[in-house]
């Protein structure tokens, strides 16, 4: 399905990003793996023949530009980007410092912006290129104690739509996936340190209509659809994969 496609995946060191990288590679793509956890992407690259590891913090614009340039040079071009890297912050707004707020914005919104800016020339030169941003259902329906996180993800949704409109005639298709509760290391951190982790987990999975958490593979399949030829007439859309929580 993705044979000969050259795809850069950020946040590939674990969770959803790793699942996307593995699925895309299995479907024939050559993948460049970006993550601030260098050892994690180096290990993953060893598992995926032909993969390129790119240790990089997505909030570092200069570092991103260098990493994207390396991927374009190594793979002789770029056909797609999947922006997954993100951070959570569970904190009342009243105790969220300016530094906390800025870090969430720099990673969750600034990261995709940095990568898209650096990758756009190569994507515009490729036929059928794609950008898939991974936002969150929390960007569509808010959560308590996550003002910074929800704001960053809502902004990423609108960035996706605006960019899709801007490049629709001569550039890549640009779409966004909004995951709900997905069983990842980020989710586990949110309840494992609670006074009663089991009760906290039950409260979390009660939110979606389906009453359970999704798997990283669920989001990987959504990203595969938006990257593949089956979505050739789809751009600027929001694909919500959240077990029926947002119902927007």
Describe, in plain words, how this protein is organized in 3D.
The protein has 248 residues and is α/β, with parallel strands linked by helices. The chain has a single domain (6-182, 215-240), classed as Rossmann fold, CATH 3.40.50. The protein has nine helices and seven strands; from the N terminus they run E-H-E-H-E-H-E-H-H-E-H-E-H-H-H-E. The chain has helices at 15-26, 38-47, 61-75, 98-108, 110-125, 147-167, 185-192, 197-205, 216-227; strands at residues 6-10, 30-35, 52-55, 80-83, 130-134, 173-179, 238-241. Strand 5, helix 6 (147-167) and strand 6 form a beta-alpha-beta unit. The radius of gyration is 17 Å and the shape is globular.
How would you describe this structure in keywords?
248 residues, alpha/beta, Rossmann fold, 7-stranded parallel sheet, 9 helices, 46% helix
Secondary structure elements and pairings:
Elements: E1 6-10, H1 15-26, E2 30-35, H2 38-47, E3 52-55, H3 61-75, E4 80-83, H4 98-108, H5 110-125, E5 130-134, H6 147-167, E6 173-179, H7 185-192, H8 197-205, H9 216-227, E7 238-241
Parallel strand pairs: 1-2, 1-4, 2-3, 4-5, 5-6, 6-7
CATH secondary-structure class: Alpha Beta
How many domain units?
1
Average predicted local confidence, pLDDT: 95
Helix amount = 40-55%
State the gist of this model.
This protein has 248 residues and is an alpha/beta fold.
């Amino acid at each position: 399905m993705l044979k000969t496609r050259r795809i850069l995946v950020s946040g590939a060191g674990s969770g959803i990003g790793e699942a996307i990288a593995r699925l895309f590679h299995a479907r024939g793509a050559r993948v460049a793996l970006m993550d601030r956890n260098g050892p994690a992407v180096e290990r993953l690259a060893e598992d995926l023949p032909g993969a390129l590891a790119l240790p990089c913090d997505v909030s570092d614009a200069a570092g991103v530009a260098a990493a994207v340039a390396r991927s374009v040079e190594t793979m002789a071009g770029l056909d797609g980007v999947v922006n997954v890297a993100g951070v959570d912050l569970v904190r009342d707004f009243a105790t969220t410092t300016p530094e906390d707020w800025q870090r969430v914005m720099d990673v969750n919104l600034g990261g995709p912006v940095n990568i898209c800016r650096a990758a756009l020339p190569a994507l515009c030169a490729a036929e059928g290129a794609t950008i898939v941003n991974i936002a969150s259902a929390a960007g569509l329906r808010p959560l308590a104690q996550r003002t910074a996180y929800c704001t960053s993800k809502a902004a990423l949704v609108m960035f996706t739509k605006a960019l899709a409109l801007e490049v629709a005639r001569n550039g890549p298709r640009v779409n966004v996936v909004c995951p709900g509760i997905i069983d990842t290391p980020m989710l586990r951190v949110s309840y494992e340190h609670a006074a009663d982790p089991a009760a906290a987990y039950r409260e979390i999975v009660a939110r979606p209509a389906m009453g359970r958490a999704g798997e990283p593979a669920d989001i990987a399949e959504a990203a595969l659809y938006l990257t593949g030829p089956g979505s050739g007439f789809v751009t600027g859309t929001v694909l919500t994969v959240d077990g029926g929580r947002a119902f927007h």
